[in-house]
Design goal:
By secondary structure, the protein is mostly helical. The protein has helices spanning about 1-10, 20-30, 40-60, 65-80, 120-145. It is flat, with a radius of gyration of 33 Å.
């Protein structure tokens, strides 16, 4: 009986697992792009590669080689995108007065020319520690009361 059952077994071939996640991730990135930000030619190349990549994504029996080739082509088209250059505005002097104080060369009270830094940091840290201590105390008291 065992031999008869063994003889009736059929060999099943399991199709290889094809990973399309990288291709899908790049497609999602490409789908968020706006045509007006890129040159016509570079964006057209991207759209051609995108269409081919979408066909591979939609193909149920696509091979890993097809997916890898579509990914490489789409990545190259994405990398080759050229942004539309906007004409630079000429640098004209800003006629607004500079109201920022210039403390760079003024000596500190001790005569050094080091920049003045805030002395509030230790105070801030002390406040944070005190607040956390208060919070721990309240939580401990509530736990004891329960």
């Amino acid at each position: 009986k065992l031999q008869k059952a063994f003889d009736l077994l059929e060999e099943v071939t399991v199709p290889p697992v094809v990973d399309k996640t990288a291709l899908q991730a790049l497609m999602d990135k490409v789908n968020g792009l706006s045509e007006e930000n890129y040159t016509e030619e570079s964006f057209a190349n991207l759209m051609t590669a995108k269409a081919e990549a979408q066909a591979v994504l939609d193909k149920a029996d696509a091979t890993q080689e097809e997916v890898d080739n579509a990914l490489a082509k789409l990545q190259k088209a994405f990398d080759d995108l050229k942004e539309v250059s906007t004409p630079e505005k000429p640098n004209k002097p800003d006629n607004k007065p500079n109201n920022k104080p210039n403390n760079q060369n003024k000596p500190n009270n001790d005569g050094s020319k080091l920049p003045t830094t805030s002395d509030d940091v230790p105070l801030l840290l002390s406040g944070i520690v005190a607040g956390l201590s208060l919070l721990v105390g309240i939580l401990t008291k509530k736990k004891k009361d329960m």
